[in-house]
Amino acid sequence: MDKKKFFFSFGLAAVGIAAAALFESERERRSLIVRRYELRSPKIERPRRIVYLSDFHERRLGDIAARLLKETARLRPDYIFLGGDMVTAKHGASIQATLALTERLAEIAPVYYGEGNHEARLDRDRGRYLQLFDDLQAGLSRQGVHYLSDETVLLGDDLALSGLHITENFYRRAPHDEMHADYVREHLGAANATRFQLLFAHSPAFFDAYARWGADLTFAGHWHGGTVRLPGNIGLMTPQFEFFRGPASGLFYRGEHAMLLSPGIGTHSINLRFMNLPELMVLELRKGRGHGR
User: Contact 184/192 with Cβ under 8 angstroms?
Assistant: First the structure.
């Protein structure tokens, strides 16, 4: 084969592979899987089921909202947790798809909403987004959705749920600032030592700080599963353009402290998912010892 034929054949193969990858990415962006997890602790007095989703990003692709609602209703959770970045702070930002979803979710079970960097940006940059953050909070309040930013609520006799406000310096492209437990303590006070302490902390990059503060279980998101999921549950890149970070999603532990990391539902900026399906996470909390799955 001469060089011209070789490069022509190579080019055709590359175009074919790229087209197949884009087709698969589009299929995945329109998909939804439900995955179950279990966590046990002697601090938990009675079983609870939590449905957790994060990084919705005002998604309007396909019938995702209808599927989320159908699956959540079928699961009959005790609580619904939203891990932040349900909206997207960008030109022409809207909150309508998010409020339409939360209104229906609140009819199924109590909804608790942790703050992501996009919600924080709506609040911080009011010159650009005007009263959009206030409209979001007012809408959530009317629906009975609990928005937690530097706030703690008690659930039953055995759970405490705190929502951490993470400032912009921790979301910058690498090298970003490193968070320590003192930051969490300054924003939330001391962790609840007598209850099972749950924490909304949108960025998973600071697991050590959350654990040292006293979070028994942290709910995080932000990384979108690494955009492209590599073998070994490694993500290709984070929104801060950090590469090959892992675990990219799922339930994992450092000692007795756990993190449930959502791969998210939607996308923004880089509208790509590969080997990385949007996921509705179902967490069973039970009394006992030892790690769940």
Answer: no
Q: Which residues contact 219 (CB under 8 A, 6 or more apart)?
A: 52, 54, 81, 83, 114, 198, 199, 200, 201, 259, 260, 262
For residue 257, the cross-strand partners are 254
Cβ atoms 174, 241 nearer than 8 A: yes
CB neighbour list of residue 249: distance below 8 Å, 6 or more residues apart: 223, 225, 226, 229, 233, 261, 262, 263, 279
As a whole number of Å, the CA-based R_g of the chain is 20
Q: What is the amino acid identity at position 36?
A: R
Residue 61: predicted pLDDT = 67
Q: Which helix (H) or strand (E) holds 256?
A: none
User: What residues form DSSP beta bridges with 33?
Assistant: 279
Mean pLDDT of all residues belonging to the chain: 89
**Rounded distance between C-alpha atoms, residue 88 and residue 55, angstroms:** 9
